[in-house]
Amino acid sequence: MDEASDVMPSELPVERRQRHTRDRTASLNSLSHFKSASSKHIRPKSTLRNRGSNASMKSVGSDTDHSEIIAPIPRRHLLQTSQSLHWLRVDTSSGDEWLNRGVSPVSASSVGSVFPNNRMSNRLSFTALMEHERTTVGPSSTADARILEDDQGNIGAGRRFVRWMHRNNMKNWVVPSAIAASTLVKWCIGFGTYSGHNRPPIFGDYEAQRHWMELTVHLPVREWYTYDLQYWGLDYPPLTAYVSWLCGRIGSLIEPSWFALQASRGLETGGSKLFMRATVVIFDLLLYIPALYTFVCAWQGTRSSRKRHAALLTLLFHPALLLIDFGHFQYNSVMLGLTLLAINAFAAGHDLFGAIFFVLSLGFKQMALYYAPAVGSYLIGKCIYLGPVHGTRLFLRLALTTTLAFIIMFAPFLPPFSPLSTIAAPIIRIFPFGRGLFEDKVANFWCFTNVLVKWKHIFASREGILIKASTGLTALGFLPAVAALIFGGYKTRLQKDAQNHSVDVSPSMAPASPSSPTPILPLLPYALLTCSMSFFLFSFQVHEKTILIPLLPLTLLLSGAAPTDDVFLWGALGNNVGVFSMWPLLKKDGLGLQYLAMLILWNRLIGYNPFKLRYGHFAGLLSSVVHTVIIILHLIELAVTPPARYPDLFPVLNVLTCTPIFGLIWLWSIKRLVEVSWAISGLPGKREKEPSSTVSAISTTSSSAMFGHSPMRGEMGVRATSLGYASGRGRGQADARRRALVTSAGGDQEH
Q1: Subcellular location, in the record's words (predicted)?
Q2: 287 with 364: CB under 8 angstroms?
Q3: I want to staple 669 with a disulfide (CB 3.0 to 4.6 A). Which of 150, 530, 652, 685 is the partner?
């Protein structure tokens, strides 16, 4: 410094004082810029160094020299590691938006590669580092502060309960207490009435399930699907019949009169009702709840235990399923539990076990066919990805396993156990094309358009045309999911072949085995949603209860999302509208109180306010409008009696309200399929030329993270990605793929 530096600013000449002011302003701007830039780099607390506060400032007396801050070179971004495949797949947010993501987008292996000699590295996660960084530097902008405030306001009762349990060293009791609480709620719902209560002579679904136990216990197998079809003839696949036989045998040991042939029709004693309700709860505890717990552990393994527990609470109290199974009375949790076990097995790489579980799901209820295009396309895509040798071998094993599973399931209806003609009866009963296009008012395309176009009258004697039209529309509806999975397997295989030709294959980059996770796994939840919603909207003979099938993958995705994610908003809206679509059925069953209580409980549990205006989200604004319409319709229904000319006025208004929402969810799922597929393998067509260093960085990243040093953590990262990037877009997000290319290129140059 020169001597003029020791003079007070007020004593300097005018020119010197002006230059001093400019230098001071420039220094403060540089300091502010450094702090803003450093807040965007993710580093552990031990490596955070705020050199800006200790930076040397040089005030030079010449006109050309200015005061400046010597800013440090930032540490290399943790996502620019050799195991950061998930960065290509995660729809990231700008700034600190990452904190609002419900699922950690990077597996623990990415962080572990930065700290190879640290024994604590296996317990580090990207989300933990980001949370630590935010507590150190605070929100980087007013927008982030607003998002954080919204998140804190949206914390549901379930998350608060989980947080309280963890803080009081009772986290090991969260899962048992959640299961116990959900079971208690199910029993409370069961205290009400059920389908067909005191409504002879046909009664309802409760009597149908009881009657199937009656006839399977007393009749030979070849008569199960032909006995008295006018009175609740058996029309579900054989596994349902076997389960009914088992329950009937146990019930007959307790009280034979409960299932006496013919004499027990319409039986509604207290003991028989208690037994029937208990069978639903027991099967739920044996199949569905373990499948949910396995799903949370397998698909959300990179999340903290708090978030996994909160996700489990969200799934355990699924309102639509609880109202139908434990109120209306059915065994849908068995079918959904078997499907969940199948996708859990696929996520773990056990494709043969997954195929067996899915065959069992199909064998329990034919509505599991709604998932079949997605499951089959995923397995075909994996076979394509594995290549000619491993792929062909896996395909043959899957074909043999599936065929044997179906043969074993239908064995009692085949020779030598029964005449060959016996097999025709269950097939005809399972696919009831003779019943017509639809029976009740269901919120799908056919009932929605039937308000203006009377399909049954136009095609009164030409039902075959409607069947073909329904089949064609359904196939067009799920075609995007099939194309995304198969094309994804083909494209990722091409990328893998190109990588193997461009670089030397090391042991860590060895070809994938059939038990390894596939890059197209993140597409599976959205494909399940697209296919099942397409069947619900366009297929033949859809019942209002069938909305449970598309609601399952939608709720699975919701469980891994933060309240600011689009998938959370669409998932909550879809579930609430799905329950409302079943209101005519629930009202008929006398379950109005349970309907209201479950909606309030579940929305409070997940922290969702359906009437809150969310100006940054189309789904949020739509939710406010739709829920307002639902409240108005309920109030009008309470106050006004429909005219005799239009007895179905309110069910029709229900259809007109719900069908557009289901259609938008179907379109949104296709949109997300395209986005996730793009993030995984790029869009169809010729790719632009990229610098070789960038391509090499991406290829190395992909192979290392997916099939590299830590297979288990890599698998969990892929599954978390399907509920992370695939969970929707929040605010302030940029193109993840473009940013990945830039950061990967920068990381490659540092090497």
Answers
A1: Endoplasmic reticulum membrane
A2: no
A3: 530
Phi, psi (5° rounding) for residue 733? -90, 145
Are the CB atoms for 602 and 317 separated by under 8 Å?
yes
Res. 589: pLDDT tops 80: yes
Short-list 136, 141, 129, 137, CA closest to 99: 129
> What gap in Å lies between CA 409 and CA 419, rounded to an integer?
16
The CA distance from 409 to 359, in Å, is 9
The candidate with the shortest Cα–Cα distance to 93, out of 633, 564, 734, is 734
How far is it, in rounded angstroms, from Cα 240 to Cα 246? 10
**Is the Cβ–Cβ distance between 538 and 470 less than 8 Å?**
yes
pTM above 0.85, yes or no: no
What is the DSSP-derived secondary structure letter of residue 93?
B
pLDDT-derived band at 540, boundaries 50, 70, 90: confident
Nearest-5° angle of CA 322, CA 631, CA 547? 35
The candidate with the shortest Cα–Cα distance to 701, out of 712, 725, 689, 717, is 717
Cβ pair 672, 526 in contact under 8 A = yes
Contact 90, 718 (CB under 8 A): no
**Could you count the other beta carbons within 10 Å of the beta carbon of residue 462?**
10
Count of other CB atoms within 10 angstroms of residue 387: 15
Q: How far apart are CA 440 and CA 727, in angstroms?
A: 34
Backbone angles phi, psi at 56, to 5 degrees: -80, 140
Amino acid type, 286: L
Identity of residue 425: A
CB count within 10 Å of CB 75 equals 15
Q: How many H helices and E strands in the chain? A: 31, 0
The identity of residue 491, as a single letter, is K
The whole-angstrom separation of Cα 347 and Cα 336 is 17
Alpha-carbon distance 496 to 487, whole Å? 14
**Cα-based angle 687, 497, 741 (whole degrees, multiple of 5):** 40
Compute the distance between CA of residue 108 and CA of residue 91 in angstroms, rounded to an integer. Answer: 18
Cβ-based neighbours of 410, under 8 Å, separated by 6 or more: 238, 423, 426
Residue 64 DSSP class: S
* Top-confidence range, 39-48, 59-68, 473-482: 473-482
The amino acid sitting at 481 is A
Q: Compute the residue count for the chain.
A: 751
φ and ψ at 608, to 5 degrees? -110, 125
Give the sign of the dihedral formed by CA 666, CA 340, CA 367, CA 415.
positive
Q: Which residues pair with 733 in a beta bridge?
A: 93
Give the pLDDT confidence score for residue 332 in this predicted structure: 96
Tens of pLDDT, residue by residue over 128-184, are 444 444 454 444 444 444 444 444 556 889 999 999 999 999 999 999 999 999 999
3-class DSSP state of 607:
coil
